[in-house]
Amino acid sequence: MPIDSNGxxxxxEVGDSYEPVAKREAMAAAMRALGxxxxxxxxxxxxxxAGELSxxxxxxxxxxxxxxxxxxxxxxxxxxxxAEKIEKVQLEVGVQQAAKLGEIVGEIYEACSxxxxxxxxxxxxxxxxxxxxxxxxxxxxxxxxxxxGPVAPTADKRTGDEALLNGPQLAAQAMSQExxxxxxxxx
Length: 187
Prior knowledge:
Shape: elongated
Mean pLDDT: 74
Radius of gyration: 30 Å
Structural class: mainly alpha
Low-confidence stretches: none
Helix content: over 70%
Distance between the termini: 60 Å
Order of helices and strands: HHHHHHH
């Protein structure tokens, strides 16, 4: 870990000092400054709450991005299937209408190419998130070994309706239609 500017200044004093007593005092001061800098660094790292980030926040973000990729792929496949149906209808209509439908289908195919590009970009972000997750997990383990321990998970600070609104759920976490039907039947 790099020594901060205070630690470097103290170490420079030690090197410039010629008297043995002054050297010992300067060395002790340098060690205290270094110890304080390390202590500050551990406190700052603990405040980041690497354990919660690596075990909850980053994986959740990665899972949500993976769900975006899957939903986008599913929607694109549905759109492409509809475009194929339009192409079949082209055979049943007049020449002018068929030409117009052909143009529209071409536009649909062109527009659907976004899915491949967005999938590639999201895959890059997912790789970065996984790397961050691994590094945060290592940092959390280091903090645990250093005796600082993990910081308690941060509480959800949302209130009222905002606390109830969690957006779309991942498939594994979402309620089943049967559960929803049971809840509505109880009303």
